[in-house]
């Protein structure tokens, strides 16, 4: 009976190890694109709406799968040890092991391998997300307590031929218009403290740092209206530092920027004079 039980334990242990190894392999190699995934396979994340989103979602979901597999292995070993070395009649003490070199080498090598794998996928995703393209449009963004200004650098655009701006205040959530399927360069500047420019549906955010220009390129791939937020706790009304992203067709975009020019909102608003006065009442997020 004892022998049979041991053989059964060995067999099920091997099956478990094989299963977990397979799941890890799937998790790390089975990533394809974030497009076209259902809510369940996106793990509840918002529908991706930019060309950079798949890289971020693959890294995020892949990292969670790797964590889950490692978690299951660790819990499995804990419960196995708890069961195998549980107190029995006669209170036998299990064989005490010290300075078990192969085991210690394993403890050192395995976490190192995990870090190497995660590091590799992180650097790869970072390089893809931050890759620069030839931008079709440039928007200079100023973050300021507690709103955003958007400068549309369209001086070389034959359809517009001017720089236009939109200044948000704490009472008025500013709009950001961008054309769909066109690479956009965002140059980020801060007038005061560190903010963070974040459009959740683009799976992208980047710090807006005073005295340090940050920039990134992104191609919005879905028409529609999306939320934009400040993702860096920047002061009392940080939570009110919102903006609305409108991804529209090229014609609508040109018409919108021309509209700003017609309203006299020309020229670039730079820090520190860009955005809002001190608040009387924080703006409220609109219900869609
Ligand atoms: Cu902020």
Automatic annotation (TrEMBL):
Residues 272-282 have a biased composition (Low complexity). It holds the Pfam family COX2_TM. Its cofactor is Cu cation. Keywords: Copper, Electron transport, Membrane, Metal-binding, Oxidoreductase, Respiratory chain, Translocase, Transmembrane, Transmembrane helix, Transport. Its EC number is 7.1.1.9. Binds a copper A center. GO terms for molecular function: copper ion binding; cytochrome-c oxidase activity; oxidoreductase activity. GO terms for cellular component: plasma membrane. Belongs to the cytochrome c oxidase subunit 2 family. This is Cytochrome c oxidase subunit 2. The lineage of its organism: Bacteria, Bacillati, Actinomycetota, Actinomycetes, Propionibacteriales.
């Amino acid at each position: 009976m004892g022998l049979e039980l041991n053989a059964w334990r060995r067999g099920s242990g091997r099956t478990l190890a094989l299963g977990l190894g397979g799941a890890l392999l799937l998790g790390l190699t089975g990533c394809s694109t974030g497009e076209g995934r259902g809510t369940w396979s996106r793990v509840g994340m918002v529908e991706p709406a930019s060309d950079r989103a798949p890289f971020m979602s693959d890294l995020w979901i892949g990292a969670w799968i790797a964590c889950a597999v490692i978690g299951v292995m660790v819990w499995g070993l804990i419960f196995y040890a708890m069961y195998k070395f549980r107190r029995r009649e006669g209170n036998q003490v299990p064989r005490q092991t010290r300075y078990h070199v192969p085991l210690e080498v394993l403890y050192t090598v395995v976490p190192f391998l995990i870090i190497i794998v995660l590091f590799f996928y992180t650097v790869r995703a970072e390089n893809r997300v931050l890759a620069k393209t030839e931008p079709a449009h440039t928007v200079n963004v100023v973050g300021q307590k507690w709103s955003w200004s958007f400068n549309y650098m369209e001086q070389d655009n034959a359809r517009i031929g001017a720089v236009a701006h939109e200044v948000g205040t704490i009472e008025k959530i500013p709009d950001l218009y961008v054309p769909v399927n066109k690479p956009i360069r965002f140059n980020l500047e801060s007038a005061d403290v560190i903010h963070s420019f974040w459009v959740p549906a683009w799976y992208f955010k980047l710090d807006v740092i005073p005295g340090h220009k940050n920039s990134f390129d992104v191609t919005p791939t879905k028409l529609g209206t999306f939320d934009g937020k400040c993702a860096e706790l920047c002061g009392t009304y940080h939570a009110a530092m919102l903006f609305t992203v409108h991804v529209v067709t090229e014609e609508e975009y040109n018409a919108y920027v021309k509209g700003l020019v017609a309203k006299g909102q020309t020229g670039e608003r730079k820090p520190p004079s860009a955005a809002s006065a001190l608040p009387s009442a924080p703006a409220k997020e609109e219900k869609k």
